[in-house]
Specification:
By secondary structure, the chain is of the alpha/beta class. It has 8 helices and 6 strands; from the N terminus they run βαααααβαβαβαββ.
C-alpha cells in the first residue's frame, strides 16, 4: 500500500508557463543582441518543451554549441526573471493543486517535493504558497549540483527511507523513476511533456484533481 507520494512541481502542480515563457524570451533576446543567436518568433509550446529539464540539460540540448559562460549568463537571466515574477505574484498553481495536497495530507500520505530547479526557486515557491504545510521533504536538483537525475536522487532517498512510493509528474524524467523497485507512476497529460513521454506510466491523469479517484 502506497504511503509516500513524490510530486514533480512545474507542469504538475505549478503552471510554470506563466513565468517561464517571458523569462526565456528575455534571455533569448540577450543572445540575439549579442549576436549569439538568430532572431526567432517562438511559439509557446516550443518554449515550454524545456520545462522539466534542469538548466544544464536544457542548454546542452537547446544550444549545445553556445559557450558555457554565455549559457550561464542566459540561465541566470531566466532564473532572475522567474524569481522577479514570483515576487510580483505572477506565479500560479493549477486550480486544484492546494486542494489535492490538503486532501492527501489529511489522508496521512507523506508528500515529497522533487524538482529540477534551483534552491532559490524552490524556497521562494515554498514561501509564496506555504508548501511546507504539505511537504515533509523538499528536494531540488541544485542540492546535487545538477549532477543527479531524478531517478538517481530518488534511489538515494529510498535507500535511507524505505516505503511504498508513488510519483506524480509530467515529463519522462519523472516516469523513469518508476524503473526503481515498487514505484507507482502517475503521468500528467496536462503538463509540458509529449504524450509519448508518459507511455510507461501506470496511470495517466487529465487534471491534478483526478488524483481524488486514486488515493
Amino acid at each position: 500500500m502506497i504511503d509516500t507520494i513524490i510530486f514533480d512541481y512545474d507542469g504538475t502542480l505549478h503552471d510554470s508557463s506563466k513565468i517561464y515563457i517571458p523569462a526565456f524570451k528575455k534571455a533569448y533576446q540577450y543572445l540575439v543582441e549579442n549576436r549569439l543567436a538568430e532572431q526567432t518568433h517562438w511559439k509557446d509550446e516550443e518554449i515550454t518543451q524545456w520545462l522539466g529539464y534542469d538548466k544544464k540539460q536544457m542548454w546542452s540540448t537547446f544550444m549545445p554549441g553556445l559557450d558555457e559562460n554565455e549559457q550561464k549568463k542566459a540561465s541566470d537571466i531566466i532564473g532572475r526573471e522567474m524569481l522577479k515574477s514570483i515576487l510580483k505574484g505572477k506565479a500560479e498553481l493549477y486550480e486544484h493543486s492546494i486542494e489535492i495536497l490538503d486532501y492527501l495530507k489529511s489522508k496521512d500520505y507523506q508528500l515529497i517535493f522533487l524538482s529540477n530547479c534551483s534552491i532559490n526557486y524552490m524556497e521562494l515557491h515554498k514561501k509564496t504558497f506555504k508548501l511546507n504545510q504539505y511537504f515533509s521533504k523538499m528536494i531540488c536538483s541544485e542540492q546535487y549540483d545538477y549532477k543527479k537525475s531524478k531517478k538517481e536522487i530518488v534511489e538515494h532517498y529510498l535507500a535511507e527511507n524505505p516505503a511504498r512510493y508513488a510519483i506524480v509528474g509530467d515529463r519522462f524524467q519523472d516516469i523513469e523513476v518508476g524503473q526503481l523497485e515498487s514505484i507507482y507512476t502517475v503521468g500528467c497529460n496536462y503538463g509540458y511533456g509529449k504524450a509519448s513521454e508518459l507511455d510507461m506510466a501506470d496511470i495517466k491523469i487529465e487534471d491534478i484533481s483526478d488524483l481524488f479517484q486514486y488515493f
